[in-house]
Amino acid sequence: MKIKCPICNEELVKIDNVYRCLNRHNYDIAKEGYINLLRKQGGKDFGDSPDMVKARRAFFSKDYYHPLKIKLTELIKNYSPSSILDLGSGEGYYTNYFKDKIDADIVGIDIAKEAVRIASKQNRNVNYIVGSVQDIPLFDKSVDLVINNFTPLDVNEITRVLGKNGILITTKVGKNHLIELKQAIYDEVYLNDNEPIKDDRLELLDSLVISFNIELDSNEDIVNLFMMTPYSHHTSLESKEKLKTLDKLSVTCEFNIDIYKKQTLY
User: How far apart are CA 157 and CA 160, in angstroms?
Assistant: First the structure.
């Protein structure tokens, strides 16, 4: 997949250790192999906090979400894409696995620089970019398949980069996801509610639910699971204190996977 300059939209060409466009906008390749194409940079960190990235990396190192990773890989293979874009690729838990199992050109994009640094360091065969999913630095109709796991969707950008009859696979948490963890720390527990995308540009091909249980046998793993979720931002200190009392927990993991095809008219 050709990468475009976020400033002038010309193609970026790799020359030695730099990506450069015709208008001489330059982007250095980091020692880990990724490039940073965020328009606004400076010293500010965007995306997930370092604590969330650290927790997610520790949790994923135990491979608790292995069944989801396997299922997504199977689904992608069904469409034999030659190019895959992973939006919100994070530390590369899914993306790097896809690259190891699927013969395709893969680009991973995430706004969190530290997460991309970790992902790129682990697999130099993926083209990792620090960038926004709302301003994808790829050309129109240049991608066979887009995968989006737990990342806010920008349908305009996704349909722009998807080629004719391109495929979009989205993963969201299911209604019972982590319900036992919620019951352990919250007085009132709500179920997750996710609806498929309703947009004329996308045809829903299939919806499925994957559910499995994981056994967490340490407080560290329980806390890491909690810290990598959005719940960590919206939970009172009192409820967070309850986490300290948990040493073992059997947890339901439930995910909604939706598969869409880009409509021919677009």
Answer: 5
